[in-house]
Model the fold of this input.
Amino acid sequence: MQHVEVTRSINAPIELVWDRYTDHRGWTDWAGIGTVTIVQRGTGDPNGVGCVRRFVTAGMGVYEEVLSFERPKRMTYKLIRGAVPIKNHLGEVLFEAENPGLTKITWRCRFDSSLPLIGGLLRAGVRRMFATTLDRFATHGGL
Done:
C-alpha cells in the first residue's frame, strides 16, 4: 500500500478555505487539472456525502465519491473508477485553523498500484499532483 501526505498553509479563514476547496465544480477554474463536474449530487449539500465528482483531463475521466463531509474540518473520498493504474484509493483532506486568517490543509491518501512494480512512481506522481494542486489553490483559488 502506498501513502501520500501533503500539507500547505493558506492565507484565509477556515470557513472560506473549506467552502472554496469543497466547491468541486470550482476546481475547473483554478486547479489546472481539467474539467470537474458533479455527476451525482450529495445528500444535503450537493458537494457532500454521496457526491460523485468527475475529473476529465486529456479526454480521460476519473470518478471519486465523497464519503464524509464534516464542515469545516474534514472530507474523505474514494476513487470509484477511472483510467489510472490505481486501486483501493482512499483520500482525506483535513482543515485546521492555525492563526486568525490562516488555515492548514493536509491532503493525504493511500492506494494500491494495479500494475506490479510501479507503486513508487505512482506515489511520486500523486504527491506532485497534490502539491501542485494545493499551490494553485493558494494562488488561484479565489481566496
User: Anything to note?
Assistant: The radius of gyration is 15 Å. Helices lie at 14-21, 27-30, 119-140. The mean pLDDT is 95. The first strand starts at residue 2 and ends at 10.
